Amino acid sequence: MIAELAARGTALLGEAPRWMPWAGGPPSLLFSDLLSGVLFRLDGDKTTPVRSFDGETVSAVIPLADGGSVVALHRSLAVFDEAGNEAHRIPLDLAPGLRLSDATAGPSGHLWIGVVPAGDEPLPGALLRYGADGVRVIQDGVGFSNGLGFSSDGTTMVHIDSDAGTIFRRSHDPHTGDVGDPEEFYRVPENSGALDGLCLDDGDRVWVALFGGGEVVCIDTDGAVVDNVLVPALRTSSCTFVGSTLYITTARVGASDLELAEFTLSGSLFRYETSVSGGPVWEGRIA
């Protein structure tokens, strides 16, 4: 199983792939270059920048139930209306040296937001929940918060701590957003790459990118790896479904000249046709 090129690119850190409308247009595949602060749209076999955020990182883009959207920036959330106009920003009170990471909406309408170190210092991160009830720290002491997702019925949440090399699973109330205690679901083998972004299919299997491993692995509901998709770029960073097509982002950040000479498509967008479809895309609600 080998992914094919969807669009050539040179993203430092491709992230946040999401099928959703933007600025009043029809749904399309959006993704970011996190470190450059640019949001892109896939147009045929090319990518088009649709929004730049100078001096910011862009780690997630989330649809809202009112037709608008939210973009997770370095330390704040940018809220856009249905026409793509920025309505306001929601600053998050983060400790110095931290930034936002992967984020998503859950079935209750809450936004779930990872917090990670912004530099090399190993500061403790967190998992936040934002909604009409304000910002809640659901879990602190997270080494490096990454991929987030929910089962098709909304009763299970999965969450990556890349530093721990582990995907955790916990019960989730799809109406209130309340969660149970985390339990280990999957631990990545040594020398396989770091767990990064993830998505779930309609059978609740987890597809997760292995940064440095050059692949996306599919993990069944019992925690066993049942499939893998090889990617012609070692720094595989995230993935999402559009129907039965799995789209995969990659990165160039930190790659040596030797690696880039061998993996010339690093930083590009890839796709793979699967035999399954993606699970629900939940919409957030902003008070």
Secondary structure elements and pairings:
Layout: E1 4-7, E2 14-20, E3 28-33, E4 38-43, E5 46-52, E6 60-63, E7 69-72, E8 76-80, E9 86-91, E10 98-105, E11 111-117, E12 125-131, E13 134-142, E14 145-150, E15 156-161, E16 166-171, E17 183-187, E18 194-200, E19 206-211, E20 215-219, E21 225-230, E22 236-242, E23 245-250, H1 257-262, E24 269-273
Antiparallel strand pairs: 1-24, 2-3, 3-4, 4-5, 6-7, 7-8, 8-9, 10-11, 11-12, 12-13, 14-15, 15-16, 16-17, 18-19, 19-20, 20-21, 22-23, 23-24
Explain what you see.
Residues 13-252 form the SMP-30/Gluconolactonase/LRE-like region domain. The chain is mainly β. Helix content is 2%, strand content 51%. The protein contains one helix and 24 strands. It has one helix at 257-262; strands at 4-7, 14-20, 28-33, 38-43, 46-52, 60-63, 69-72, 76-80, 86-91, 98-105, 111-117, 125-131, 134-142, 145-150, 156-161, 166-171, 183-187, 194-200, 206-211, 215-219, 225-230, 236-242, 245-250, 269-273. A hairpin with a 7-residue loop joins strand 2 (14-20) and strand 3 (28-33). It starts with a strand and ends in a 14-residue tail after the last strand.
